[in-house]
Every structure is written in structure tokens, then in C-alpha cells.
Amino acid sequence: MSEYIHQQLNEQLRDALLALYLTYALAEDSTLPRQYKIRTADDLYAYWLLDVQVSQAVPTTRVASAIASLQHYINAISSGLEPGYETLGMSSAQHKIWRDSLHAYSIWRTVQQVRHFPAHYLDPMLRSQKTESFKKLENDLNQCRLDADSVRPAVQRYLAEFEEIATLKTVSGYIDGASNNFANSTYYFIAKSNIDSTYFWRSLDMSKRTEPFVIDGAQLYKQDIPQPGAWSEWKKSLFLLLSSFQTIVFALCVLITGCWLYGLSAFRLRPPITAPSILGRTLESLRKVIKNA
């Protein structure tokens, strides 16, 4: 039997069952509320939220049909067409979220895939913000013929730098902003390498987030996570410590001239020298400097 004949027979069977239900079974359906007066297939579609006149040429599944029915139901609520929701429906913020990314499964799926699997859609070569390690990798690959002997050392160098960054230990931080506006300030972080005494720093611009919703003229606080571009890469600091020094505390401040890192360290001298003698020698040195200035 051809596919066309099979389709025609199934659709005629569907029409016969639909007519049987509307004519005989509907009157004996005790689960149907009295306020629903179903007489036609369109009335049944409005009650079931299921298209009973769709052609067999449209492929679907039970899950897809359930999703479509649920979306139709929420659309009716947002439009004030669902009984009981004529006046009490979605808020302005909920309606915006539904309209922008949730009202259709295809749109929601695309948004989720781009959010959680960006590598499937974004070409790393086209990124506007690239780390120095990635730029070095690009440069190494562009300067040679791509084969195993040339690609392997370039990738190994990149992974070695990535391993150092991945094992950093954050030791301090600084918030550059007003105390009443931390949600939109710039955050700075200091980290120490596990390999040597090298220190790194990076920043986070909390203002780079999705614009907040505005309800009745009032702007709500941004509650979502920062955008990936809000983070800067880890950069090496010129702050160095000798291995004999014991670090007590680190701090960072941001001035007009740039970002400054300073720390308080301690070390032990042998033989031990008393604190008054150290203070006296320090003051004497300062007097000589001032006198010769």
C-alpha cells in the first residue's frame, strides 16, 4: 500500500472517530465541565489544546504534542484568554521573559544550546577577547605547516600555561566602587601560582550583565550572572617575593595611575636582632637620607 493511500485512510478514520465522539460519546462524558459547550472540532481543540484536525503529513510525537499543548495553554494565560486568567495573568517581567525566549520550544532550545554549549556555535578564531596564551597558540599554528610534529609542541605549551592558570590559588581581592553599588562595581582578584612565587591578578566588571527588567517605571537589580566578557584574563604581576619571606597579607588598590599590588611580609634574621635596635637603625638611616636631600 502506498504512503498516500495509507495517509488518506488514517485521516478518514480520524474524522470518523471524531464525529463519533462529538455525536455520542461527548454527551455521556461526565468529566466535562458544564461551562464548556463543545459542538465542533474547533471547540474540542480549544478544550483539549490538541489539534484533532492535523494532517498525517505533519510528523510529531507524544512529547512534542504535550509541549505544544502546554505552550498553547501558557500563551492563553499571557493573553488573558484562559478562563480564570482574564484579569489575573503574568506580570510585566514574566511576560517579557515568556515572549523573548520561552513562548516557542524552538526558540527556547536555541537559547539553551547557545548558553550551555557555545563552542558548538561560536568559532574561537572569531572571539573578540582572546587570552595571551591563546594568541600565542594561534601564532604558533599559523607559522608552520599543520602536522603532528608542529602541532604537538604548540598545544603542549598552551596546556602548560593553562595548567598554571588552572591551579592558581586566590589569596586576596579588592572592590573598586562605591559601598552602596557593589552590584555594578569592578572586582579585582589576586592569586598565587603553585609552581613558584609568581602572583597574578584579574578583574570582573559586574556591570556587564543582562539589562534588568523595568516594572512600572522601577528598575530592578540585576540578579543574573555576569557575561563571559566581564572577566579579564589572569595577568602576571611584577610583585615578587623572596622564598625566605613569609607573606602575612596581600592587598590591592586601584588609583588613577593604574592598579597597584602591595603586600606585608616578614622574615627572620640570624642572629636575631631585637626590635628596638632595628627601629633605631631604621630611624638613623632616614635621618641621613633627609640630611643629604
From TrEMBL:
Record InterPro entries: ABC_toxin_N (IPR046839), Neuraminidase-like (IPR041079)
Domain Neuraminidase-like: 168-236
Domain ABC toxin N-terminal: 8-138
Name used for this protein in its record: Uncharacterized protein
Source organism superkingdom: Bacteria
Membrane-spanning intervals of the chain: 238-263
One Pfam family per UniProt: ABC_toxin_N
Keyword terms, alphabetized: Membrane, Transmembrane, Transmembrane helix
Taxonomic classification: Bacteria, Pseudomonadati, Pseudomonadota, Gammaproteobacteria, Pseudomonadales
